[in-house]
């Protein structure tokens, strides 16, 4: 799970429309802004329908070319075999974002803790995303600046020594973010980080929080806790 500061989604000049639905054995939330709130509401419903359709295909084990291709690529590059369930939400978010194109000025989608930010291309935006400690979700391990696209954290509670506790990946699309987060988590930080050149990835384990060079100046660590005397 990720902690996204919704306060960072500043009040737009236009009123927002928000919706929440159960889907993919989790919850989907969506908020969108645009000139016509009725059209925005319709686009959010279409986004949900896209996610629900993908969920139906996955449940019926219908082959989806994009998912098969990504699984083969991850296996080739890392040796990790990913399940469909581990990457389905990312692909569903990509399809949902397509349903919003041309209707919303900006939108925030969330399926099961994976986020997809659709922002105006002419005005770069910044959203603060907190990466929680899997063993204590009230504690934030790091905060990363999400500018567009999707962010996914895969985590392992009470990880054995040397294993990755959590891996967060930011990418321009949801499928890439979900697939690489799941794969890198299985590898552990020491093996994963050398593979992240050109990627935006953060890895946390017993050695601390480390990130790929592409995220330089976009990650901040919380100040150390001060013990009471």
Strand order of the largest sheet: 2-3-4-5-8-9-10-11
Number of folding domains?
1
Please give the number of β-strands: 12
Helicity range? 25-40%
CATH architecture: Roll
CATH class: Alpha Beta
Structural class, please? alpha+beta
Low-confidence stretches: 1-12
CATH superfamily membership, which one? ApbE-like domains
Q: Termini distance?
A: 33 Å
- Main beta sheet, described? 8 strands, antiparallel
Distinct helical segment count: 5
Gyration radius (Cα, Å) is 18 Å
Q: What portion of residues belong to β-strands?
A: 25-35%
Question: Mean pLDDT across all residues, rounded?
Answer: 88
Which fold does the CATH topology refer to?
A: T-fold
Q: Which H/E pattern describes the elements?
A: EEEHHHEEEEEEHHEEE
Write the topology of this structure.
Layout: E1 3-4, E2 16-23, E3 26-33, H1 37-59, H2 65-78, H3 84-100, E4 106-111, E5 114-118, E6 127-133, E7 136-146, E8 149-155, E9 166-171, H4 174-187, H5 189-192, E10 200-205, E11 208-211, E12 219-220
Antiparallel strand pairs: 1-6, 2-3, 3-4, 4-5, 5-8, 6-7, 7-12, 8-9, 9-10, 10-11
Please explain how this structure is put together.
- With 229 residues, the chain is α+β, with helices and mostly antiparallel strands.
- It has one domain (3-220): T-fold, CATH 3.10.520.10.
- It has 5 helices and 12 strands.
- It has helices at 37-59, 65-78, 84-100, 174-187, 189-192; strands at 3-4, 16-23, 26-33, 106-111, 114-118, 127-133, 136-146, 149-155, 166-171, 200-205, 208-211, 219-220.
- An 8-stranded antiparallel sheet has the order 2-3-4-5-8-9-10-11, with helices on one face. It has a 4-stranded antiparallel sheet with strand order 1-6-7-12, with no helix packed on it.
- β10 and β11 (208-211) form a beta hairpin.
- α1 (37-59) runs antiparallel to α3, α2 runs parallel beside α4 and α3 packs antiparallel against α4.
- The protein is globular.
- The relative contact order is 0.15.
- Mean pLDDT is 88; it is low at 1-12.
């Amino acid at each position: 799970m990720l902690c996204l500061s919704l306060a960072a989604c500043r009040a737009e000049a236009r009123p927002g429309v928000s919706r929440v639905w159960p889907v993919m054995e989790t919850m989907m939330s969506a908020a969108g802004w645009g000139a016509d709130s009725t059209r925005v509401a319709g686009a959010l419903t279409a986004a949900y329908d896209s996610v629900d359709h993908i969920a139906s295909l996955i449940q019926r084990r219908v082959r989806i070319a994009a998912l098969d291709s990504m699984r083969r690529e991850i296996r080739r590059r890392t040796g990790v075999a990913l399940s469909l369930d581990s990457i389905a939400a990312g692909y569903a978010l990509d399809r949902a974002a397509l349903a919003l194109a041309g209707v919303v000025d900006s939108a925030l989608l969330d399926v099961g803790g994976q986020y997809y930010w659709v922002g105006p291309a002419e005005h770069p935006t910044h959203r603060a995303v907190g990466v929680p400690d899997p063993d204590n979700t009230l504690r934030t391990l790091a905060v990363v600046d999400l500018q567009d696209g999707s962010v996914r954290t895969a985590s392992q509670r009470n990880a054995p020594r040397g294993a990755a506790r959590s891996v967060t990946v930011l990418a321009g699309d949801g499928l890439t973010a979900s697939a690489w987060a799941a794969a890198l988590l299985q590898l552990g930080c020491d093996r994963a980080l050398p593979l992240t050149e050109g990627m935006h990835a953060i890895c946390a384990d017993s050695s601390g929080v480390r990130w790929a060079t592409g995220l330089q100046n976009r990650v901040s660590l919380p100040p150390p806790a001060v013990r009471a005397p």
